[in-house]
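Question: Hello, beginner here. Any chance you could explain the protein record under this note? Any guidance would be welcome.
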Amino acid sequence: MNSSLRVSKHLAENIAYLKNCLPIGTSYDLIARTLVIANRNAYFVCINGLCEMNLINDILADLQNPSFLEAFDFETAKSLIEQKIGYAQTSVSDSFDEIILQLLSGPCAIFVEGYDEAIVLDVRSYPKRGMDEPEMEQMTRGARDGFVETLSSNTCLVRRRVRSPHLVFEKLQIGTVSQTDVAICYLGDLVNTSLLEKLRESLEKIKASTLTMGAMSLLELLVPKRCLSIMPCMQLTQRPDVACSYLTEGHILLLVDNSPMALILPCTIFQFTQSPEDYLKNPLAGTYFRLLRFLCMPINLLLMPVFLLLTTCYPDFRDKWNLISTGQMQTPRIIFYVIAVELFLDLFRFASTLNAGKQSGPLSIVGGLIIGDMAVTLNWASPEFLFYGGITLLAGLTLSSPELADALRIYRIFMVLSTSFLGKAGFYGSLCLVLLSIIRTPTFGGMSYFWPLFPFHGKALCRLLFRSPTYKAQPSRNYKRGRVS
């Protein structure tokens, strides 16, 4: 049948089309039944579990009450809802495409004999979990709520914090099969209009059957990765306060149904060094810890490769500074120790993230003590390697973005392997490749990944490096960030 078919005035034709498009009678969660409304035959359809059934029962009870509808002659569906349906989220539609999409999203539909439009009642009520603080972005103080998997709840969390008449949520569907709801959130008086228009065009051009992993799938569709670029090209957050902070600075948020996170664009590398924890301390302490996180990035990336380079390629320097206290050690054993420590520490970190919060701390400590001690006893490692590996792990844990920490970890392993097999040439060559990969990280709209360092903007760079007092924390106007391709 024609997918663009319009609703017919003949109820039998509408029922036949619905049964052809939907598994009515086969799928147990599809509820359909015949009614009599205002002396007219009617047909009601909804999906059980996505609707507020008590509210539906009240509305249908009123519509089927003869005394409630007597002395009225409803010629159109619109006149019926205007006079006798007091529920606010009620509309009419004559397109079966739109009606079926609404049904599959949660609202219910009523078809009435003689009406060429269906009545759509948005009575959806999605199952959802509590808005608990996200485990990956916990803070010592501050709000304890977080985004959930329900889009309407996430928009409420944003609206609650930003009560501006310029706040806009544009909704569209992506995915020919899933028809996933995606909301573009921005402040109309602050947003970069060129970037916003580019985003709309890109979302409309996406050809995908489904967003399998929600927001992460959308991210990869918006900014396709280059083969050598593994740095995060768009910031994600599960904290509404963080999302709203960027929103009031002119950024755009993307909220995806079934995903408890927000995508923030445009994106720069400096955003991954920011943490809301900075603003829960006084400006001096906040600045100290922010600069410490900046320092942790090169430590996490370079400490183990530089240690391997110095101990294998510069033996005089190694002996002078006593980098290895266990005496002479052959280069193959040093390489083996470094690689083994890297793998052991990643194993601890991965195991702790897969366990509940109450178990992850004891698991990491006990596992590190036992396995580390046994590794030294069995000559699978030495205390120096465990020490430098532990510092590398701690430096990675201070980064507020797990995506950035994962990227630096992959770069570090690449440099360790290159230095192991190729010596000095491997270290310097891999370092150049890593820097080239970071520089060539793609961003949405072609905006600079290193703004405000390049193009240089001194005032904005100072705001990123130093924690400003609250009354100076947000700019009074938008900074120009570069072009939109």
The chain has a mean pLDDT of 84. Residues 11-121 form one domain.
